[in-house]
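Summary for the lay section of the report: proteins are chains of building blocks that fold into shapes. Here we show the chain for Transglutaminase-like domain-containing protein and then a coded description of the shape we predicted for it.
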Amino acid sequence: MHEESRTAASRRRFAEEARSERPDLSLLCLLVSAEADPELDEDGIDAAQIDLDRLAGQLPYRPGGAREWAAALAELLGARCGFAGTPADYQRLESSLLHEVLQRRRGLPILLSVVWIEVARRAGAPVYGVALPGHFVVGFGAREEQVLTDPFAGGRLLTGADAELLVAGSSGGTVSSSMLTPADPLNIVLRILNNIRAWAAARPERSDVALWAVELSLLLPAHPARLRYERAQLLVQRGDFLAGAAELETYADVVTTVEPTTADRVRDQARAARAMLN
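The coded shape description reads as follows.
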């Protein structure tokens, strides 16, 4: 399949899955991976899903309550398989790509958490993501018996004090009960894409990565309107002045009723982008 048409097909699949009744988190993450790795085709996506199935098959059958499930995942994925993270992983794009994390067994907290969630879910565990500020973790069990684990630390069980330290260290804040609720799969995907955009923003030569991360974010049913402005800026930065100007004008139309001054400034930027063609 031609590269452009393959990308278009992959994005259609991403958009359809994101709007399905029960979005498949692992599939959405693998379709993000396909944007970064042109060699990741349908067979590669299937192979990654099979790998998750295989790992789930190695868990004990119904080991017990939330704490026993958390311990079983830590033993399998952390101790036996070596899934964990290091500070150096924050510098690698691969740390945000699920197929790479499955191969390297290294990644960002949120991608390692996706591995934990997807393996545990396949085995029937009461598992979900917990979006602590600055450090994603995994929860097991209902709120009254909730057990938190940190896949970045190999699945270490977290006490309340541990969670407080994680949040204080990453954001300077404190843990609230609202932070401990299950994270929606689409919010997890958006947070992964935000991480990729942040990685690319620190590397201006990788504006290609920033662009596809923004464009995938825009395919999610709910996303910040300002992403359209970010996409427009990236298009102009990459020399696509007409498309960038058109996107700037679209964004200006969206915000004109609530931020007329901003809308005027953005329309000036659109005119400036078109003038670059002269």
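Put simply, here is one thing we learned. Residues 185-201 form the longest helix (17 residues).
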